[in-house]
Design a protein that fits this description.
four-stranded antiparallel beta sheet, nine-stranded mixed beta sheet, elongated, 211 residues, 9% helix
Length: 211
């Protein structure tokens, strides 16, 4: 089995291109947690052989397997994940690119959403605005409802409507609460953020009257 020398060059990738980071949320992403194993699956079924590639400095390079990384059919299995392994992987059938997926690492230290975001509501309006104040994150999105906190595909994620001068993000969210009824339901806002292939997810619950 060949040595996975690609991870050495991957260290260079993190130091050079990781500073800019992702500025959007990819359609396909997998978040690894600590030293847990994780599997990447090719998003398109192929009747022929599948090879995997890893993007290094803007170029898709063939993978050298070893050190806990193994191809199993059309999937790519990691026994553990470290920072040099993070980034975009793509599966190929010959010269045809079938699909791609980003491998991210779950943020070890969870931050309180109250320290990351501030929200304000207008009276008798079905919208409220939120400002994300930490500029080190390069991609942020918010979702309203339990289906967002539980990670369901039906979550109506909202991208930033405007970028703040300090590098943060501004969001406009819509709710269905009646401004004339007694408020008994808490709003549940979930934020997902990416910083240098590190993935943060946190949720805040509050009454509309409190903002």
């Amino acid at each position: 089995m060949r040595t996975l020398s690609l991870w050495i060059s991957g260290l260079l990738l993190i130091s050079l291109s990781g500073a800019d980071g992702l500025t959007y949320f990819p359609d396909n992403l997998v978040v690894a947690k600590g030293e847990d194993s994780v599997t990447l699956t090719c998003g398109v079924k192929s009747g022929g052989p599948v090879t995997w590639k890893f993007e290094v400095n803007g170029k898709e390079e063939d993978l050298d397997f070893g050190n806990g990384v193994q191809q199993m059919g059309q999937s790519l299995a990691f026994s553990e994940v470290d920072h040099p392994m993070l980034g975009e992987y793509s599966c190929w059938n010959g010269s045809v690119k079938l699909s791609s997926v980003y491998l991210l690492l779950d943020a070890e230290e969870k931050e309180d959403l109250n320290s990351l975001i501030s929200c304000q509501a207008k009276s008798y309006d079905c919208t409220f605005s939120c400002n994300w104040t930490h500029s080190e994150y390069t991609a942020v999105r918010l979702g309203l409802g339990q289906n967002c906190s539980t990670g369901e595909k039906s979550c109506p994620w909202v991208s930033s409507s405007d970028k703040l001068q300090d590098g943060g993000f501004q969001f406009e969210l819509s709710h269905t609460l009646s401004p004339y009824a007694e408020e008994s339901t808490m709003l549940e806002v979930t934020a997902e953020a990416i910083n240098n292939y590190s993935f943060l997810k946190t949720t805040r619950r509050f009454y509309l009257r409190d903002i």
